[in-house]
Write a structure and sequence with these properties.
Layout: H1 7-23, H2 33-37, E1 42-50, H3 64-75, E2 79-86, H4 89-100, E3 105-112, E4 114-115, E5 120-121, E6 130-138, E7 145-151, E8 161-162, E9 164-170, E10 174-180, H5 186-208, E11 213-218, E12 238-241, E13 246-250, E14 254-262, E15 272-279
Parallel strand pairs: 1-2, 10-11
Antiparallel strand pairs: 1-15, 2-6, 3-6, 4-5, 4-8, 7-9, 9-10, 11-13, 12-13, 14-15
Helix pairs in contact: 3-4
């Protein structure tokens, strides 16, 4: 006849089992298949800079390029939009950008502003074309990208410089754009902003397959002033600014966060505007009609 465990032993075994269960880690909740299959967000750091490097404006110091290289090297952005640069500035900045993205292909794009009197491009004091630019990177030399560029159809006729816009469709993931709007007519700047965000960029996005779209630039418009930059920001879009004239706007499938102003130490009259982009391909963006 087998002896039964005593009541004390039975109680001790029960307590031991309870204690063992208490220290075991809880099983993680099962991840739904749909959630596992959802595309993961893409996170990019974006930097907007106005370098005032034409050599003709009062804000020119001759030190903006050196400071821009320092900022790019320290902040390590994935995307940089430039205003008021000369054509040969972009290749010079290319080296600093390549240095923070070794093994990646750097994509560089430039668009000159027009010059109404000559029918040619606006020129820097050194004779180079003057305009806007963009730097980003892609995984391989064969990764596709498409450049779109032009001048705004509405211009301030009192200003010989015809303002331009520039976009790069990056690997089907993002449509990245920049512009420098009219500085001599704020109502003209507002009209340019409206047309760019309501017509030009949605048309390109539709052509490219409804890409998440981000725009960085010196819009020469302020929030809380008349005219107000917020009046040309489409419903659902996000916007951050430098508390002055530079802004970054994004379609609803992009979250803008972590704004920072990067000091330029007097090298130009604008700070660097730094932001983080969280691109969520599972969220529907603003689709053009």
């Amino acid at each position: 006849m087998v002896a039964r465990p005593s009541r004390f032993l039975r109680r001790s075994l029960a307590v031991s089992c309870l204690l063992a269960a208490a220290v075991l880690p809880a099983a993680p909740p099962a991840t739904p298949i749909a959630a596992r299959d959802a595309p993961q967000p893409t996170i990019l750091r974006m930097l907007q800079m106005n370098l005032c490097n034409s050599g003709r404006a009062g804000c020119y110091t001759g030190r903006a390029m050196a400071r821009a290289v320092e900022v790019i090297t320290v902040e390590a952005p994935d995307l940089v939009t430039f205003n008021e640069i000369c054509a040969d500035d972009l290749p010079a900045l290319h080296g600093a950008f390549q240095g923070i993205h070794p093994g990646r292909r750097v994509v560089a794009a430039f668009q000159a502003a027009g010059d109404r009197p000559s029918g040619d491009d606006t020129r820097c004091r050194n004779g180079q074309r003057f305009g806007i630019g963009l730097l980003t990177h892609v995984p391989t030399p064969t990764t596709p990208h498409t450049v779109y560029a032009g001048t705004h159809p509405i211009q301030d006729l009192a200003d010989p410089e015809e303002r331009a816009w520039l976009c790069v469709d990056i690997d089907g993931t993002l449509l990245a754009c920049t512009t420098h709007l009219s500085a001599t007519g704020y109502r003209v700047a507002l009209t340019q902003c409206d047309h760019l965000l309501d017509t030009i960029l949605p048309t390109i996005s539709r052509t490219a397959g409804s890409r998440p779209t981000v725009l960085g630039g010196d819009l020469n418009l302020r929030a809380g002033h008349d005219p107000d930059v917020r009046s040309c920001t489409p419903p659902g879009h996000q916007r951050i600014g430098d508390d002055r004239l530079q802004h970054i706007t994004a379609t609803p499938d992009i979250t803008l966060c972590c704004r920072a102003l990067v000091p330029m130490h007097g090298a130009t009259d604008h700070p660097g505007l730094l932001a983080t982009l969280i691109i969520d391909r599972s969220r529907p963006g603003r689709r053009p009609a």
